[in-house]
Amino acid sequence: MRVSHYVKHKLKSLKHYGLENPLREIRYILKEKLNLSYEEQIFNKDLVISVHEILELEKIFEERKKKKPLSKILNKSYFRDIILSVNEHTFSPRIDTEVLIDILIEQKINCKNILELGTGTGALSISLLKHYKTAKSIVTDISKEAIYIAKKNAIFNNTVHQMQFICCDWLSCFENLNFDIIISNPPYVKRSEIKFLDDEVKNYDPLISLDGGNDGLVSYRKILDSIKKIGKKNLIVLFEIGFDQAKQVTNIMKEHNFKKIQIFNDYCNLPRCILGKV
Ligand SMILES: C[S@@+](CC[C@H](N)C(=O)[O-])C[C@H]1O[C@@H](n2cnc3c(N)ncnc32)[C@H](O)[C@@H]1O
Fold first, then answer.
1. Please, which of 207, 254, 262, 271 could form a disulfide with 246 given CB 3.0 to 4.6 Å?
2. How far, CA to CA in Å, does 201 sit from each of 94, 127, 152, 186, 274?
3. Are 34 and 169 within one domain?
4. Residue nearest to atom 19 of ligand 1 (CA)
5. Is the same domain home to 57 and 86?
6. Nearest alpha carbon, ligand 1 atom 27
């Protein structure tokens, strides 16, 4: 079958499944699964795909109709300029989170010694270490499956020599905090709101990566309580936050003696990150 016919046919059959941009998805799947560049798909009118290939594609579209995210179907995700493996145990990295890297680079923040809490696929640290070639990062997660994937991604992206991997509950296994900066995108959805999230999120991202407790702020409090208890001067903390949590997280940071607190917006101009110094 010609690719152009296949795309038309697929567009029709996906019409009723509520996908935001089915054409973009079809083209992306053709690129990822059959290695057909967008240019080839659009300009090579004679391009054909085999019956076997169509059957392979059908399996993907069947899963997509059940709202399984493409990252979880293809076990692959893009984050800034890196490619990451993802699976059912890992949170799929979001474009909103990329802004955290921009902030560190644009603000020229010292990132030689990084601690990342709740690393998931390793997206944040791997991206940062690709930029800061002499920096080091200790990455943690409570999920050992996530740590396994983060290490695999670090090997693939050639940053593993700059990283250490620890499976632990926030800061519970740290006795001192000899880092320039702690970064984290912790779970921050209110427990009672998880059921209202899109199926793609609530059915496919691990609950532990979403659940921020009764008010969505439990992880921030736990992390900041531990920093206060361990005691550290000259430490910068940069968190991702929910777009409506800036005020509350600012207050929690102030209660924990943080100064020079700044809020940064994401690419949709919504408050997305908070930075403070202690
Ligand atoms: C929202 S995801 C962020 C993942 C990744 N940093 C990113 O931005 O794509 C939150 C991560 O925190 C981890 N996590 C949840 N509770 C934790 C805890 N108590 N200690 C350490 N990590 C935790 C989850 O397993 C998950 O990987």
1. 271
2. 11, 23, 23, 15, 23
3. no
4. 169
5. no
6. 120
